[in-house]
Write a structure and sequence with these properties.
89% helix, mainly alpha, 73 residues, 0% strand
């Protein structure tokens, strides 16, 4: 993989990370609103929607780090 392809891949991955984190923020905000309004069980249910996003972001960041290291070697 050449440097241009590596850069494009990293940029794409980071764009995906940002998009997923924006979605996670919306979910966390909704969970917080539920919690503040006394709907604790609903807050927990909504917050569970973060599990998959957090996992995906972690995977994307790990992949981006590996790709970045490939570009340095």
């Amino acid at each position: 993989m050449d440097a241009t392809s590596l850069d494009a891949t990293v940029k794409t991955s980071l764009t995906l990370v940002r998009a997923k984190l924006e979605k996670a923020l919306r979910i966390a905000t909704a969970a917080e609103v539920c919690s503040v309004s006394g709907r604790t069980r609903k807050a927990i249910e909504v917050a569970r929607g973060l599990d998959e996003i957090v996992s995906e972001v972690n995977t994307l960041l790990n992949t981006t780090n590996i790709i970045s290291r490939l570009g340095q070697s």
